[in-house]
Each structure stands twice: as structure tokens, then as C-alpha cells.
Prior knowledge:
The protein is an alpha+beta fold. 51% of the residues lie in helices and 17% in strands.
Amino acid sequence: xxxxxxxxxxxxxxxxxxxxxxxxxxxxxxxxxxxxxxxxxxxxxxxxxxxxxxxxxxxxxxxxxxxxxxxxxxxxxxxxxxxxxxxxxxxxxxxxxxxxxxxxxxxxxxxxxxxxxxxxxxxxxxxxxxxxxxxxxxxxxxxxxxx
Length: 147
């Protein structure tokens, strides 16, 4: 069930000190939605909250136009009229992504094996190309032999 309301907030936030006004406006909006939608649980949307707190705690808006929707569980979602709707992602997309990662892992392993083979071939070519030269002794080893 969905309904659009223009909620008067000024009547409520005038009852509290200046430094508590936006907080009282949030409470007033929740109470209004609970009363008119006949529900106990009310959840405020991101954009309504930003609208209420836009000018700080001392200057909330006098009234707000909201869209209230009640789900099967009896929870009321309150969102600003004209606010963008966020879509939920499907679970099927996640499953597809997992299979793609498995395929990519197999491809990576194949590429690693090819690279290892190439490096082994390159090492063999270098060993064949180098003639064996006598090893040079370090200066410290030469001194030890002299003594």
C-alpha cells in the first residue's frame, strides 16, 4: 500500500528548544507515518533524512512531501517524493560471476604453464651457447692458498 502525504512538521518542532528541532522533526515524521499507515515500525529513507537535516539542527523544513509504502510485514518505508529508487541486485548475477572466475583461474594456470616452458627452453639455449670457462678465484681464497 502506497500513499503520498504532506507532513506538517512546524507544529511539532516549535514545542522544543532550537537546538533540538531537527531531531524532533524526525520523531514527528515517524509518529505521523505510524499513525496514518497504522503500523508500529517506520523506516525513514536516506533522502528524507537528508532533507530534514539539510539546514542543520536548528532549521528543519516546515513541511515535507513524502511517499509512504507499507510492505507485507507491516513495515512502513518513508521516502521523499521524487527521490531516486534504488534497485536490488539479483542473486543470479553473483552465481554467474563465480563461474566466470573459475574459468579465468583455469586460463591463468594454462598461461603460467606456457610461461614456465618458455623459460626452461630459454635456459637450455643459454647453457648450450655458453662455453665452459674456468672459474676465477676470489682474492681472499688466493691469499689462503699462498699461506
